[in-house]
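Query structure, 458 tokens:
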């Protein structure tokens, strides 16, 4: 499964104020843990939870705002605790009511993680094995589910909300939360140790080149070069591994596009945050339970060509749609962009070549490489490095073909020079001031002087 659908809003409430006695959310020796409210499991409170749920009417709960429901559940818990002679102090009463509301309206124990903007990925490997990516590093969280069935219940709620099911007969599903976060669920028998849930959180804040420079992802000169490349409608491929910042880079590049241009985006899971007024967003559709109705990226790219786009932005190139992407770049849709999974700039070109071959076009290798060399102008290679920082490691120009070999020219290339005492990598960029092959394009857009000035500052 590689497609995504929109999950209706679960009515997520706002984060509660942190309690000074609340345990840290993430235990990590290398970084200062972030303290957030954490669900807990007080001894003997399982009975109280069950009695409270038994007295709540689901039909009424669906129409009550989350904050009002929290108040009513807290009041009900106090009544039941008095009747059953169960010890419950004010803090435990508040905590248990928040947990119950999260379970009823949200994603249960995951709600605090979703509210934490420093966390980018959430991975549930089991009820007591929850990991997060925080500030670029993978760490264990102290978030816990009650049991495997609790994980399954949350997962099935997500699947049901998009009109699909997740069980042993249909053990995989992809979805998208209301804020754009991507969700992947896999159930037994494919997942041997119980239900697994993976969430790639959607960035709520727009990140532009200015912020990327501040993060240390690239230099100001490199940011200026990429802005000029987008303005001059160069065809750009953003390459990198999973979680390396490809979509973030695409969003930053897209902010320099002229508002007068018509843009069509094609994505498996809609993540791009284009701000232009004339944008048409297309998203793939998975097959139904009967195996019918699938709409692939290739179908959408072909359709996009009939929509009179100035630019086509392909969220991720991963299959035979690579051929249609190259056709678009070679037939007047200058300034088109896409991302691809690859480790180096040269590997990205090899992957595109292999993906075109996957489409069984029957084209000889030389013809495919000729298409690639005439279509692509720049490759931006990004990488999540060992200190947790996502950096641009190469900005490479595709000069052309020398025989049947791609001729590449690194405009910028990252070099390492050790690390600081805190583990932060010491880096520098080697730049080349050679005249680029797209020099005439720069002159056409009156950006030749700006390019030369940016390279002088490098």
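Result returned for the query:
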């Amino acid at each position: 499964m590689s497609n995504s659908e929109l999950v209706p809003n679960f009515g997520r409430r706002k984060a509660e104020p942190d309690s000074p006695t609340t345990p840290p959310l993430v235990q990590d020796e290398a970084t200062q843990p972030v303290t957030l409210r954490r669900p807990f499991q007080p001894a003997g409170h399982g009975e109280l939870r069950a009695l409270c749920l038994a007295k709540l009417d689901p039909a009424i709960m669906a129409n009550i705002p989350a904050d009002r429901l929290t108040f009513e559940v807290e009041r009900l818990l106090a009544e039941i605790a008095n009747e059953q002679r169960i010890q419950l102090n004010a803090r435990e009463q508040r905590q248990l009511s928040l947990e119950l509301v999260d379970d009823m309206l949200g994603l249960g124990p995951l709600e605090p993680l979703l509210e934490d903007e420093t966390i980018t990925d959430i991975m549930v490997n089991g009820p007591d094995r929850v990991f997060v990516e925080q500030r670029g590093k993978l760490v264990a969280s102290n978030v816990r589910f009650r049991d495997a069935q609790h994980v399954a219940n949350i997962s099935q709620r997500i699947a049901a909300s998009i009109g699909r099911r997740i069980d042993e007969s249909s053990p995989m599903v992809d979805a998208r939360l209301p804020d754009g976060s991507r969700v992947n669920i896999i159930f037994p028998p494919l997942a041997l140790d119980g239900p697994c849930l993976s969430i790639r959180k959607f960035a709520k804040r727009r990140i532009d080149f200015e912020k990327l420079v501040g993060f240390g992802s690239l230099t100001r000169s490199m940011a200026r070069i990429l802005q000029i490349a987008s303005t001059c409608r160069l065809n750009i491929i953003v390459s990198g591994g999973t979680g390396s910042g490809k979509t973030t880079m695409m969003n930053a590049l897209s902010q320099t596009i002229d508002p007068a241009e018509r843009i069509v985006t094609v994505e498996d899971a809609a993540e791009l945050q284009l701000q232009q007024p004339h944008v048409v967003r297309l998203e793939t559709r998975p097959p139904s339970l009967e195996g019918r109705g699938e709409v692939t990226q290739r179908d959408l790219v072909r359709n996009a060509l009939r929509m009179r786009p100035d630019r086509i932005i392909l969220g991720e190139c991963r299959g035979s749609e690579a051929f249609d992407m190259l056709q678009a770049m070679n037939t007047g849709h200058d300034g088109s962009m896409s991302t691809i999974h690859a480790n180096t700039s040269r590997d990205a070109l090899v992957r595109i070549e292999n993906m075109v071959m996957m489409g069984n076009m029957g084209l000889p290798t030389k013809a495919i490489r000729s298409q690639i060399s005439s279509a692509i102008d720049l490759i931006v290679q990004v990488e999540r490095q060992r200190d947790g920082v996502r950096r641009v490691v190469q900005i490479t120009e595709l000069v052309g073909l020398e025989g049947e070999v791609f001729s590449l020219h690194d405009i910028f290339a990252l070099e390492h020079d050790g690390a600081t005492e805190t583990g932060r990598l010491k880096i520098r960029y080697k730049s080349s001031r050679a005249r680029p092959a797209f020099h005439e394009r720069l002159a056409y857009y009156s950006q030749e002087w700006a390019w030369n000035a940016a390279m002088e500052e490098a």
